[in-house]
Specification:
194 residues, alpha+beta, 60s Ribosomal Protein L30, Chain: A, 3 helices, 7 strands, Peptide synthetase, BB2672
Length: 194
């Protein structure tokens, strides 16, 4: 397959100073990198689509680095991540699943403590569709303080024959996390869970 045809990219960054309670000592930052590509399978059923994952790997690596740069350039500062895709209406949900390996592994390769699976979501949608991308701790999925989501979308994407690919990273837990569970400081990092 040819390399992905990119129409546009966007990076959204947020700095969260408080959520109505006391401000944290260090604001939490989160960012989403979005890339709109042509869907090479739009408008028809293709049985063998898995090869396109290989073609998406360089894009995943670039998007992961762009996110790290948007959050200050230090991959060690990243504590949470997630990924997602919105497939245009001439595509199918499975086309969004092509992003699992290239998007997830790209982030895990750049973040040293990243044993946890990268949570994901996908849907079929029209231009302007929004997606809540789930976020969990990078090294232990059971760290409740990092269960979060970031809403993303672009006004003009995806068009019917496109896919909007998304990666999300965060620098810490929810601002007022206080519902117990495994603390990030107690993560052993052996199995991606605890």
């Amino acid at each position: 397959m040819p390399e992905p045809q990119i129409r546009k990219t966007a990076i959204l960054t947020e700095t969260i100073y408080h959520e109505g309670g006391p401000a944290p000592e260090v604001p939490q930052r989160r960012a989403a990198c979005m890339t709109v590509i042509a869907n090479p399978f739009a408008g028809r059923y293709v049985e063998d689509i898995a090869g396109f994952m290989e073609d998406l790997k360089p894009l995943g690596a670039q998007m992961a680095q762009d996110l790290i740069d948007a959050l200050g350039g230090d991959a060690a500062a990243v504590e949470g991540y997630g990924k997602g895709a919105i497939v245009g209406t001439n595509g199918e949900l499975e086309h969004g699943a092509l992003w699992h390996v290239p998007g997830g592994y790209a982030m895990r390769e750049k973040i040293a403590d990243s044993m946890a699976i990268v949570p994901s979501t996908k849907k079929v949608g029209a231009p302007g569709a929004r997606l809540d991308v789930p976020v969990t701790h990078t090294n232990a999925s059971y760290v409740r303080s990092h269960f979060d989501a970031m809403e993303v979308g672009l006004a003009d994407a995806p068009k019917a024959d496109e896919i909007l690919l998304v990666l999300v990273m965060t620098t810490g837990p929810r601002i007022h996390a206080r519902v117990g569970g495994l603390a990030a400081a107690d993560v052993k990092g052996e199995d991606g869970l605890r």
